[in-house]
Specification:
The complex is a heterodimer of chains A (163) and B (135).
Chain A: H1 4-10, H2 20-30, H3 45-58, H4 74-87, E1 96-99, E2 105-111, E3 114-120, E4 126-132, E5 140-144, H5 149-160
Antiparallel strand pairs in A: 1-2, 2-3, 3-4, 4-5
Chain B: E1 16-21, E2 26-29, E3 34-37, E4 51-55, H1 56-61, E5 77-82, H2 83-88, E6 92-95, E7 104-108, H3 113-122, E8 124-127
Antiparallel strand pairs in B: 1-4, 1-5, 2-3, 4-7, 5-8, 6-7
Classes of the chains: A alpha+beta (163), B alpha+beta (135).
Chain lengths: 163, 135
């Protein structure tokens, strides 16, 4: 789980889950405390941007792609949020969040000359693909587990790079 | 390649393979400057069966429109790749006609992220997504 500071950053997310069931599941599964935004803690823009999308994805029924896709597992949502809490900066562009047919989630960024895709395979494993259209020699892809240094580096590059 | 499947040589390399894409799977790629499907739209079935597709040539021979594969699937778009691209990326293609779905086919073979990304980027909209994006 994220540490206290990271949880504080995310605690605003549950404010954006308007339905009781979704909100309670988020609180229960992610162990969010009482809304901290009420205490004046700022919520990054990207959190507000992705939260409605996440909520909608959690509502998908099986076969949502017409090709037999599974419902999105709550553990995938939990893993995605935990990962984001560890790699994102407040001004990082929000990811495009894709559901996958096996019930997982894929995070994507395609801007500023960077193509970054992160396929969540659980709470401690994901597959990352980075393509730098401005510096093709720096492309890489592979499975990462606990060491997020390379992903953080790519996110930092994305955050700092101008259009 | 997935076991038990054989690439069908009667499916020409210029065959157009059609794939339904739900609105969840397309977005505006700022790098490319256009909307395109996500690589997540080109996956095998979660039960291990190969990725489904429709053969455009069979639709034509049967007098069916591309729109016919969207029956009952409001809000979907249809993306296409050509068979040559699939084969160049380690895939085989076989006909799997179904009742009332004579153009159904399967694209079999390993689809790591790199392959799915190539499909997504090379795909061409046959029926473009609705203009309004949903969250």
């Amino acid at each position: 789980m994220p540490d206290g500071a990271e949880l504080a950053q995310f605690s605003g997310a549950d404010l954006y889950f308007p339905t009781g069931i979704a909100r309670e599941r988020v609180r229960a599964e992610l162990r969010f405390d009482a809304p901290r935004a009420e205490a004046g803690i700022d919520v990054p823009t990207w959190v507000a941007t992705i939260t409605p999308r996440l909520q909608n994805l959690m509502m998908l029924r099986s076969n949502w792609n017409s090709y037999g896709a599974r419902t999105i597992q709550f553990s995938s949502l939990e893993a995605a949020i935990e990962l984001l809490s560890r790699i994102m900066r407040p001004n990082t562009p929000p990811p495009i969040i894709m559901p996958t047919s096996d019930g997982s989630l894929q995070l994507e960024w395609h801007e500023k000359g960077l193509d970054l895709e992160v396929r969540i395979h659980g709470r401690s494993r994901c597959y990352v693909s980075v393509e730098d259209l401005r510096n093709p020699g720096r492309d890489w892809e592979g499975t990462i587990t606990s060491n997020l240094a390379r992903v953080k580096s790519a996110i930092n590059e994305l955050t700092d790079r101008s259009d | 390649m997935q076991g038990g499947y054989t690439d069908d040589p009667t499916i020409e390399n210029d065959e157009v393979l059609l794939r339904r894409v739900p609105h969840w799977h397309f977005y505006f790629d700022k790098n490319l400057g256009r909307r395109r499907p996500s690589s997540a739209a080109f996956e095998d079935h979660p039960n291990g069966s190969p990725m489904s597709a429709h053969l455009a040539s069979v639709l034509e021979v049967k007098g069916l429109s591309v729109e016919s594969i969207l029956a009952g699937h409001d809000g979907y778009a249809v993306a296409s790749i050509i068979a040559e691209l699939a084969r160049a990326n380690g895939q085989g293609i076989c006909r799997k006609p179904r009742d009332n779905d004579p153009a159904h086919a399967e694209v079999f073979g390993p689809k790591p992220e790199s392959v799915r990304k190539r499909f997504a980027r090379a795909s061409v909209w046959v029926i473009a997504p609705p203009e309004i994006m949903r969250s």
